[in-house]
Structure formats: C-alpha cells, structure tokens
Amino acid sequence: MFIELNNVTKKYAHNGTGVTAVKSVSLDIERGEFISLLGPSGCGKSTLINLIGGFETATEGGVYINGIPVSEPSPRYVTIFQNYGLLPWRTVEKNIQLGLEMKKMGRKQMKGVVDRYVEMVGLNNFRKYHPHQLSGGMQQRVAIARTLAVDPEIIFMDEPFGSLDALTRMNMQEVLAELWELQKKTIIFITHDLEEAVYFSDRIVIMTPNPGTIKTVIPVPLSRKRDRTGADFLMIRERVFNEFETKKEDKTEYYL
Amino acid sequence: MILLTIRYLGVNKQLWQNMSKKIIDIATGFSILIFVWYIVVMSGIYDKALLPSPLKVAGAVMELIKEGTLLEHFIVSFQRFLAGYIAAVVFGVALGLFLGWFRSIWNIVDPVVQVIRPVSPIAWLPFVVLLFGIGNLPAIVIIFIAAFFPILLSTVSSIGKIDPTYFKVARNFGIRQPHILTKIVFPAAFPYITIGLHIGVGTGWIFLVAGEMIGAQSGLGFLIIDSRNNLRADLLIAAIIFIGLSGLLLDKLLFVLERWIGKNWGITTAYTGV
Fold first, then answer.
1. Which of A72, A102, A130 sits opposite B173 (nearest CB)?
2. Interface predicted TM-score of the whole assembly (ipTM), two decimals
3. CA distances to A143, B92, B105, B153, B162 from B108, in Å
C-alpha cells in the first residue's frame, strides 16, 4: 500500500484540556488515487493531511508512505494551502521556481521546467505579474504549477477552490481534472462540496466531527470526463448526501 | 496593450488633477504663513533685528546660496546624516532580525530598550562629546541613536507579522537555513521594516541639527549657532527653512521606495505619522 494510516489519533493540548482532533483513523490509499475528504468543519480533515504531509505527528498510531513512517515535510508530498501560500514579493515565474531552487539544477534546466508549467496552467502572459495582480483562480493555478514543478508523489489540497466564485470554480475543477489525468499524481483533496467530491474522486472519505473519525468510504466507480448531470453521477451524489442526512436524524432523536 | 496604455493615461490624468490641487493647497498655506509673518513684523511689536521681515530672509536665502555657504554646510550635514543613518539601518535591521527570530532573547532585551528608547538622544550628548570628542563623530552618533530605535523595533515586530503559511511552504519545499532567512524571512518582513526606516529618516534629520549645534564646527546646525553668534536673525531663519526643506526632500525620497514595495509586494506600507 502506498499511503497507510494505522489507527491514527491526534490530540492537542488546549487550555489545559486535551482536544481529540482525529480518533482511530485507519485508511489505505493507493498510488495514483484521487481521494476526497468530505465533512463539516472541525471533523479533522486538515489535521489528517497535516499528519500525512509530515507537518504534525500522530499522538497514537502510525502514518506510512511507501512503508516508511512520515516524520517531516518533504518536497515529495506537497500541500497546496487554503490561501495558496504564494510569496507576494515573487512574480508568477519566481513563485513556480521556488521549489526548484533547492534542487541541484542548472539555471537553464530550471527555466525549462518553469516554462513548461507556466504554459501548462495557461499563465504565459502573466509570468512577470505579482500574485496580488492576479485573480483568485489565477493564483490557484500558480500554486498548482509551483507544486507540479517539483514533481511530487502526493499532492494535498486543502479546500483549494473554497474562495472562488462559482464559474471560476467550475473552470478550475476542469483544469485540475485534466492535470490529474495527465500526471496521475496521488491527490488528497479536502472539500465540503459534495458535487466537487463526486466529480473528482476515486473514493470519498466521509468524516464526522467530535472527535474526527471516518464514517464511511464511498467508492466512485465512474469513468473519467465525468458528466455532472448524468444519472450515475447524481445517484452517487445522492448517496453521499444521504450519509449526512442520516446523521442529522440521529441527532434529532438524541435530543428528543 | 492599447487598453493598458489608455488605463495608464487615465490614471495620469487623475494624478495631474490631484497634483494641481495639491500645489494650490501648498501655495495657499505658505501665502497665509508669510502674510501673518509680515503683519507681525509690520506691527512693530518685535525689534526688526530679532524678527526680520520675509523680504530680508529672502535676501539672506539668496546670500547663502550665492556665497555657496549653504551647499557647503548642507553637504557636510548630509554626509553625517548618511553615516549615522546607514549605521543605524545596518545594526538596527541585523539586530532586529536576530532578536525578532529569537523571541526569548528579545524578551530579555525588550525591557532595557523600552527604558532607553524614550530618552531624547540629546541627553546622551555630553556623554557622546566626552567619549568621541568634537567634530563629525558626535553628530553621527546622535543621528545613529535617533534612527536606531525605530528601525530596531519595527524590524523585531516585522518578524512577528510574517504569515506562518510562508514557513510551512518553505518547509514543504525543503528550504532550510540560511535560505529560510534570505528567501522567506527577509523579503516577508521587508515592507514592515521600511516603516521603521521611514520613521528613522525623520528622527535622524531632526537630531542632526541638535548634534551639530554642540559638537560641530560645520553643517546646518552649526549655521544656526553661527548666525546667532553674529546676531543675524535673517540667516538663522533662512537656515531653518533649508533644514525643513531638505528634511522634506529626504522624506519624499522614501516615497519611491514605498511605491516600489506597493508594486512588488502588493501592500501599502506608507508611514503617515508625524
């Protein structure tokens, strides 16, 4: 198995009391899979990718990539943060270049890689722009290009399209779907948009909060170039939706 | 490209409107000042030798410019200012980055700085003269003290303002020290550091004159003392005008820096204090 979460629990010390962000999570992910983590805020989605990405260490249990315990962040597993994490003082091309600067790479070779990814995300006319001069969708593309440029094995995306308007969002979803088809990276994707999850995922991991646990894992056996209005698509969307509905009913009974 | 040019021209037109309005405001302000000054002189309350008329001061200004005294003193003053200010920038920024990074050390240094900072650099002057003698050094040291603290404090606080995401990104891409300092910390903190640089120019220039009034035999501050000793109030006011104008000029130079930051960082840092 490529990524292995083995009974992972993460507790934080908070005002003297412990808060359990993630409890007893076990999950196996195969190479090249597109996995969505879906659930309400506070269900431990971000904690989970921080654990796999090596930004945090598990209180109990183990996180393994290729059978090796994850201990620190690495350019082989890159996170695209919610606010994109672009460096505002660098131009588009310099931002994309960031991860390459730490590799032993000649100037020419570096430029070649930057050129390739600037082109791939369609920002050729904006290479000399600074992030604040770009729209949200364009900034997101810079972040994606910067990530792809270091050729990582895994890409984590924390609600990447959360702050985009509906049309840009659809457009960016298509861009990402195409890039994924092209590159076949393993992507772990946080969202609380059901449709987005169904559109992208091989499997959808549904999480519930307090403490963060995995409720169910729903496979999405649809062929690629997914049609958002197709019958199969809607059926799976409904199934995912129901997973949340049942939980609501449970709660109502509990309070009665 | 054409669209861009049109937009650029549009901005320019607005800029012109703003500028002409500004020029009118400036002219009005100074006209009123000179008028009131003239009235007070004409009223005869004060001896004309003590409070010269605007016309007489204008004559003194011309005299200082023609004789080259002004340029001579200005150059001396400016060199001292540069020496003290650049030293303050180098030490203030370097120490500020260090202390801002190692917060636990800053917590120890901070109380001491808070006690020293409010002391006017002039209070150090007797001490400075005893230690450094007279000549260029006392003025330079005073400028250094005056500019150092705002630069140090803004640099320390700039480190705390860095978005933690940048550090996560750096770690993720395998960037390690010293590259974290050069690629992340310094550029991220730079716009905030310039706020201190700006304040430092102001305070440095103010205390330059004070430093030159006691420790020096040349410079704009010395020009003031020299005019007093010769009972030339007109020259004195002329010197004051020059000091004010050159201080303003220095301040405006920083606009260039701030515009550049706005363009490259996308944030406005313009220090709009006194």
1. A102
2. 0.85
3. 40, 17, 5, 14, 22
